[in-house]
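Worked example 3 (structure in, sequence out).
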């Protein structure tokens, strides 16, 4: 519709009243630079049951993470650095990056085709979501749901819809809410200025209890006290973002005296059925007999644990442990304690020799290369003053327990020690 000019006003004078195109461009850039969307109240992890479409709109609303029995809160967002007209669009996305459009729908007031959209109150620039539920989409309907989302061009991170042909890759038991704000464009008055989308914490389906944690089996039930051995743990239906592996030790009264976590990344959880990691080191390497501890699965979201399974830490080569002792007195004390623990070992001289370490045995114990002491370092001839004949005699008598290595067939000469 052509502009109507007032009486006595020339066309040139009327143009002067119109905003400059350059001023609109500058205003747009300034808005996108200063404004941002933040989440002021995260949704609770387990506050709503994902409902099927046939159940109708009977699901409870998603509660805020700060909700209590006496005070209920709701998820909330706020636009900072801007005050004016804006729209917030909310949709479901997958739990892991890259964030893809999730087939589950949002239901409630102001929801259409599985997506929520609402104007933001200008006075506060905050928007609460107090009537929002999640509708479960069955695997057979995943492609239909994503096609509908694609038709209305809802893809906050622009990662496409290729995953709609692989419904098995989408976790139906957990979603994130994606909040995407659009500011009013001063040029045409339309909401065409998008802010960077933000995602919420994970919302888990509270539709049914989660399966119990179970350790089905392990490839190895023991490791050296130095740690580092690879362990493959078989389990049942674990979520890689919601699982941990605990190592702990109890005393005779059942009190926990040592605790640590196994370190692993989400990619080390294989198809909800297996976890592989390296055994953490024991609290001390100075042990002379196997130590029994426990290994256990732990789920942080509901603090559930599996039944603990036994795990054994084995001592290092006694010669290497003795090498760690820095003084002659400590070495003697260590060997006396060692002989008392091992009643079947033949008593040796007051100044015992140090058993040489076999390379194959060391590799089985997973001792790192920098920690492998050589024979001359272990012998410490200045401290012991042992000649080759005495050393050969003692080596013929000593059998190193736990390692299964008999050194009676070793033969040393004077040239070997020089």
């Amino acid at each position: 519709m052509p502009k109507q000019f007032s009486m006595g006003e020339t066309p040139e004078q009327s143009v002067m009243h119109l905003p400059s195109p350059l001023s609109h461009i500058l205003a747009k850039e300034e808005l996108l630079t200063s404004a941002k969307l933040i989440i002021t109240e995260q949704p609770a992890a387990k506050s709503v049951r994902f409902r099927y479409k046939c159940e109708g709109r009977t699901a409870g609303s998603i509660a805020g993470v700060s909700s209590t029995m006496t005070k209920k809160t709701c998820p909330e967002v706020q636009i900072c650095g801007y005050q004016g007209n804006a729209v917030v669009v909310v949709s479901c996305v997958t739990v892991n990056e890259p964030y893809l459009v999730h087939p589950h729908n949002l239901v409630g007031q102001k929801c259409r085709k599985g997506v929520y959209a609402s104007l933001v109150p200008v006075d506060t620039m905050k928007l609460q979501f107090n009537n929002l539920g999640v509708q479960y989409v069955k695997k057979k309907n995943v492609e239909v749901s994503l096609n509908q989302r694609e038709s209305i061009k809802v893809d906050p991170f622009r990662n496409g819809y290729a995953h709609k042909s692989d419904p098995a890759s989408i976790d139906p038991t957990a979603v994130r809410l994606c909040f995407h704000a659009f500011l009013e464009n001063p040029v045409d008055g339309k909401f065409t200025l998008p802010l960077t989308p933000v995602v919420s914490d994970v919302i888990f389906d509270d539709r049914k209890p989660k399966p119990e944690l179970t350790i089905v089996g392990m490839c190895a039930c023991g490791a050296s006290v130095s740690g580092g051995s690879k362990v493959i743990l078989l389990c049942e239906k674990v979520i890689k973002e919601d699982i941990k592996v605990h190592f702990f030790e109890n005393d005779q009264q059942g009190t926990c005296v040592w605790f640590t976590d196994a370190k692993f990344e989400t990619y080390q959880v294989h198809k909800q059925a297996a976890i592989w990691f390296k055994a953490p080191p024991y609290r001390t390497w100075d042990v002379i007999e196997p130590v029994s501890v426990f290994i256990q699965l732990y789920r942080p979201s509901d603090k559930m644990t599996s039944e603990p399974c036994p795990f054994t830490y084995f001592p290092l080569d006694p010669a290497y442990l003795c090498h760690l002792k820095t003084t002659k007195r400590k070495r003697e004390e260590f060997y006396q304690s060692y002989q008392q623990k091992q009643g079947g070992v033949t008593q040796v001289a007051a100044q015992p020799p140090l058993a040489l370490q076999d390379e194959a045995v060391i590799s089985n114990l997973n001792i790192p290369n920098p920690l492998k002491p050589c024979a001359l370092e272990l012998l410490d001839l200045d401290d012991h003053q042992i000649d080759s004949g005495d050393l050969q005699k003692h080596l013929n008598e000593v059998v190193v327990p736990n390692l299964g290595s008999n050194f009676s067939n070793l033969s040393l000469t004077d040239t070997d020690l020089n």
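Notes: The longest helix spans residues 21-34. Confidence is low (pLDDT under 50) at residues 1-24, 344-418.
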